[in-house]
Structures are given as structure tokens and as C-alpha cells.
Specification:
181 residues, mainly alpha
Length: 181
């Protein structure tokens, strides 16, 4: 597809609102993989593992039990996403991919109950979910001749859209609350 941008994914263009355009750079991922399904799946698995770790950090950052339960549920969702991606990877590559991205840094003691750090962490997961949606839609577009890939990518995109919407809403609500203090 050259350097053009992807604008739609299988008739689902309005489902994701503003998240419509996905550039070729999104497909290449952080390690510069050139559109191979294997490379894209490796990057997606790494991203899901990292996002899970970020949700686990958010659990540590709040004393609020409802927020802890929400973050815990989202972390479990990221594990399910990684497992789904692993199944797809195994079907195409014949092996299980072992994530090897460097772990995210542990929290410093001052970050544990720091409201600003919690907001910053939420901002990071909102961006990670947005990136995942765009990446999955791009995979579905790029591999449109492979129905199993399209189906799984769109399932993941819809699930991550829900995570994105929930976390963006939570971020907006908490930042408004924080600004009125």
C-alpha cells in the first residue's frame, strides 16, 4: 500500500470515530518490522504484555477498591488478548512467541498513592489502547485476504476500543476532579 494511509477497515469506518487513519508507520511497529504478519503479531503481543503491566501498576497506585477492580479486570483482558494473538501467531509461525521487551520500571515509593502519577499512568494506557486499535485495524486491512486474521484483529480492535473509551472517560473524570481540588 505504499506510504498512503489506511482510512477504513472492512466497512467499520464509523465504529471507532476519530480513530480512522492508520499510517504505514503504525504497521511497522517499534522495531521496524516491514509488514510481515509475524512481525506485526510479535509487536502486538509485546504491546499487550506491556499494557497489562501498566494496569498492574495502576492497581498499586490507587487505594480505591473500585478502581483496583477495574484495573484488575483490564489486566486480565490484556492477558486474554495476548493469548489470542499467541494462537494466531502459532497458527502462522508454528511456534509460540516469547515476549522479550524490557520490563517497565517499578514504581517509586512516592508514586504509589500520587494522584498526578495515577493520571499520568492512565494517560499512558489510553494512548496504548488507541495505538492497539489502530494497529489491529491496520492488520485487518493489510491481511484482508485472510479471514481468520481479519476476524481476530477486529475482535481485538473492538475490545481495545472499549478499554480505550473506558480509560479515556476515567482519565477525563479524574482530571476534572483533580483540577477542582
Amino acid at each position: 500500500m505504499g506510504s498512503s494511509a489506511f482510512a477504513r477497515c472492512g466497512g467499520h469506518s464509523n465504529v471507532f470515530g476519530r480513530l480512522e487513519v492508520v499510517s504505514d508507520s503504525t504497521l511497522r511497529g517499534k522495531r521496524g518490522a516491514q509488514f510481515s504478519l509475524q512481525g506485526l503479531l510479535e509487536g502486538a503481543i509485546e504491546d499487550e504484555v506491556e499494557t497489562r503491566a501498566r494496569y498492574l501498576q495502576l492497581i498499586e497506585m490507587t487505594p480505591n477498591r473500585r478502581l483496583k477492580a477495574t484495573f484488575s479486570s483490564l489486566a486480565v483482558g490484556e492477558v486474554a488478548h495476548a493469548q489470542l494473538l499467541q494462537q494466531l501467531y502459532r497458527a502462522y509461525a508454528g511456534v509460540v512467541y516469547e515476549p522479550h521487551r524490557e520490563a517497565i520500571a517499578s514504581l517509586k515509593s512516592g508514586q504509589v498513592l500520587d494522584y498526578s502519577a495515577l493520571l499520568q499512568g492512565l494517560g499512558i494506557v489510553v494512548e496504548a489502547e488507541r495505538k492497539a486499535i489502530m494497529g489491529y485495524r491496520a492488520i485487518a486491512e493489510r491481511y484482508s485476504s485472510q479471514p481468520d486474521v481479519v476476524r481476530q484483529a477486529l475482535v481485538l480492535a473492538r475490545s481495545d476500543f472499549q478499554h480505550y473509551r473506558d480509560m479515556r472517560g476515567m482519565y477525563n473524570k479524574l482530571s476534572r476532579h483533580h483540577s477542582t481540588r
